[in-house]
């Protein structure tokens, strides 16, 4: 796959629908399950709820949303990459930004069924510290932690 240049920019509501479509497609592919919320509710969540406690950054390629991350100094809440753009360094760029802004420790959840995400997070220094069902999808999940090396 040709490596094309993407940019990382703060989320803007003008990208809401594009972001939600990419997010839903990526998540459905990763877990093999349809999104449980309506598209409209998902857009409202992105526009009004998620930004209250999280910085949201987008990866843009040719003006299109190809990735998104929502994070704060302690956790990564969401990280999704367009299904056709995985393996291009987008996830790493977004995750590196969250690490830079972190308190030196980040946690995140991923679904146990999402082995690609597990390999990605482990490659980038995260380790499993818990297991459970802390999600609306009622799927087993893994709690990961990353700590900045002294």
From TrEMBL:
Residues 6-149 form the N-acetyltransferase domain. Its EC number is 2.3.1.-. Gene3D superfamilies: 3.40.630.30. GO terms for molecular function: acyltransferase activity, transferring groups other than amino-acyl groups. Keywords: Acyltransferase, Transferase. It is an enzyme of class 2 (transferase). Pfam families: Acetyltransf_10 (PF13673). InterPro entries: Acyl_CoA_acyltransferase, GNAT_dom, MshD_Acetyltransferase. PANTHER family: L-AMINO ACID N-ACETYLTRANSFERASE, N-ACETYLTRANSFERASE DOMAIN-CONTAINING PROTEIN. This is GNAT family N-acetyltransferase. It comes from Ectobacillus ponti.
């Amino acid at each position: 796959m040709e490596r094309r240049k993407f940019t990382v920019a703060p989320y803007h509501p003008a990208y809401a629908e594009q972001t939600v479509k990419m997010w839903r497609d990526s998540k459905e592919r990763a877990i093999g399950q349809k999104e449980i919320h309506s598209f409209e509710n998902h857009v409202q969540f992105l526009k009004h709820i998620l930004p209250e406690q999280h910085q949201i950054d987008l990866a843009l390629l040719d003006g299109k949303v190809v990735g998104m991350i929502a994070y704060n100094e302690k956790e990564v809440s969401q990280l999704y990459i367009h299904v056709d753009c995985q393996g291009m360094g987008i996830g790493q760029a977004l995750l590196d930004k969250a690490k830079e802004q972190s308190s030196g420790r980040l946690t995140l959840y991923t679904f146990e069924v999402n082995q690609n995400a597990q390999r990605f997070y482990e490659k980038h220094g995260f380790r499993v510290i818990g297991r459970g069902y802390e999600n609306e999808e009622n799927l087993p999940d893994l709690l990961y932690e990353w700590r900045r090396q002294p």
